Amino acid sequence: MRIVQKYGGSSVATVEKLGQVADMVAAARRRGDDVVVVVSAMGKTTDDLIALAKKVSPEPARRELDMLVSTGERVSMALLSIAMQARGIDSISFTGSQSGIITSDRHFDARILEVRPYRIEDELDRGKVVIVAGYQGMSEKKEITTLGRGGSDTTAVALAAALGADRCEIYSDVDGVYSADPRVVADASHLPELRLELLQEMAEAGAKVLNAQAVEWARRSNIAIHARKTGDSVGANGHPEKQTVAREDADARARAVTGLGRVVCASASDVGLLAALLTELRVPALDVSVDDGGQARAVLPLLNVPDWPRCEAALVAAGVTMSEERSFVSVVGDGLLSEGRSLPMFLRSLRDANVMVHAVRATPLRLSAVVATSAQGDAERALHAALVRG
Ligand code: ASP
Ligand code: MG
Predict the structure, then answer these.
(1) pLDDT per position as a tens digit, 43-82
(2) Domains of the chain: which residue ranges?
(3) pLDDT in tens, 135-186
(4) CATH top-level class for 256-389?
């Protein structure tokens, strides 16, 4: 079997944890599998590197940020390969560009365009475990890029597709996907199975277990994602007791609540102008709409916009009105508009929890509200109680 495993930052946060990962990879290799391992940067390394850059300048250029933060994954890939070799396992580490991850040139938030994993194939043929630095790639112009926060997931899924892997396993400090963030909602329940379509909605709306672009790749390439907890022992079938398997054809209907911090609402009288500005400034939008009166509105997530003050100033100068930073809370599920009861319940439960709602977006798969950041936790708990548990 050919397996791609991805280990998140918390799984490689210390040398001890890295050793635990090396043991798990060695076990998979000794079972006879071909193994490609994608690693994130150790612990909070990426945050620390960004903070370091901001100490040098309040608005570092995105290209230089990419040069900086991409080093985080290089550290963990090399250390893991050293740990593998210390365990008598033949291994080699590769950067994103050596792995053939070709991306757009949108620095700090690049998209994978193509994967050419020739060197990985060669080394697998030689019997080696290949360790790949996640979250990074190279543009056609040979510039180093990164894939947006949490982008190591995307590396793993894209590689699994390009290598024709039998399985893509995503390891983190949680044993799969839950109906809400368990740190916020105490009675969040584990979802053993999930349709990729719903997982994508959840990821886009802020669920941190998996990166949205990764899920998009999984859908496009028909890859099943196994989300697992690092250190949970696997049985003879290679599966741990608890995990979430997300597949395109899973019929499991899930309802889940997500929360996304740091969003702003933009409003302009000319949608063409707004769209052109967002593209030029490289600011992504969660959604864009135009009402009957021609007023254009967009919800903008700021996670992958490292130079927001500059972008905001440019938007305001062009006549775009901007809200303060808020949170975006959502209920994700099937047929949320068709049965007609969900939206009224959604609104009522927020009102009963005294959560002030600034904007609402509703689609068949997702009901969302823009709320004050201070109300995000209360909103998530209220929505979970009313629409997931209730
Ligand atoms: N290290 C990067 C981040 O913290 C990528 C990742 O963890 O997947 O966002
Ligand atoms: Mg990380």
Answers:
(1) 999 999 999 999 999 989 999 999 999 999 999 999 999 9
(2) 2-247, 256-389
(3) 999 999 999 999 999 999 999 999 999 999 999 999 999 999 999 999 999 9
(4) alpha beta
Unique residue bearing structure tokens 């076990």: 27
Residues with CB under 6 A from ligand 1: 8-9, 40-41, 46, 72, 134-135, 149-152
Nearest protein CA to atom 9 of ligand 1, as residue: 149
Encode burial over 5-23: b for 16+ CB neighbours within 10 A, e otherwise. bbbbbbbbbeeebbbbbbe
CA of 152 to the centre of ligand 1 (A): 6
Which residues does 137 contact at the CB level (< 8 Å), separation at least 6? 96, 97, 101, 102, 103, 110, 112, 144, 145, 146, 147, 155
Shortest-distance atom of ligand 1 to CA 153: 8
What is the best residue among 44, 50, 152, 303 to mutate for testing ligand 1's pocket, by most ligand atoms within 8 Å of CB?
152
Q: Give strand pairing partners of 3.
A: 35, 167
Could you say which of 3.40.109.10, 3.40.1160.10, 1.25.40.80, 3.10.290.10 is the CATH number of the domain covering 2-247? 3.40.1160.10
Q: Indicate the pTM of the whole model.
A: 0.95
